[in-house]
Amino acid sequence: IENSSNRHVTYSKRRNGIIKKAKEITVLCDAQVSLVIFAGSGKMNEFCSPATSVVDILDRYQKQSGKKLWDAKHENLNNEIIKIKKENDSMQIELRHLKGHDITSLNYKDLMAIEDALETGMANIRDQQSELARTVRRNMKMAEDENRELVYILQKLGVEGEENMNKDLEEGSSDYCLHQAAAAAAHQHQMPNFAFRVQPMQPNLRDRI
């Protein structure tokens, strides 16, 4: 189809039709279908039966056809992923058992193992709690010692400051008195000496005679 618009419309109709047929054969025939479609623009559309996945379909295809869809490196990686998934599932089950869930199917040996694990965990928790308590007490004692030392230093500084202040006041008062005395002496020294002579207001009677 030369016209791009017509080609896009035709692709959309045929794609929807193929996906519809894949769904029908999955439901009617109980078949496992995986469908992957890439448009000319590179956009991907896919459909897979609800009971499976594209990876499972490709894995089955690889085993039955004998064709290698990926190399040994990817296969080892896939095996590692499966192994990790199994370990994770096992850890989830053990965690539920430790919480007391789903233990009705366990035998006596399994229950004893869970009890031992819980006792070990509780012992570790108590040890950690004791260590934290000792650390808190040690830090509190250090804080109290530092506080007492600071109080002593402040009291010492206060006493010394008061003594210095009194000393400064005494020295200042003495210096002030000396300064005042020196100023008074200098002022008296600078004053001129005046000689006063008293003249009689009445002439001497002897002169009149």
Automatic annotation (TrEMBL):
GO terms for cellular component: nucleus. Residues 1-51 form the MADS-box domain. GO terms for biological process: positive regulation of transcription by RNA polymerase II. Keywords: Coiled coil, DNA-binding, Nucleus, Transcription, Transcription regulation. It is found in: Nucleus. It comes from the Eukaryota. Residues 74-160 form the K-box domain. Gene3D superfamilies: Transcription factor, MADS-box (3.40.1810.10). It holds the Pfam family SRF-TF. InterPro entries: MADS-box/MEF2_TF (IPR050142), MEF2-like_N (IPR033896), TF_Kbox (IPR002487), TF_MADSbox (IPR002100), TF_MADSbox_sf (IPR036879). Residues 67-94 form a coiled coil. One of its GO terms (molecular function) is RNA polymerase II transcription regulatory region sequence-specific DNA binding. This is PISTILLATA-like protein. It comes from Loranthus kaoi. The gene is PI.
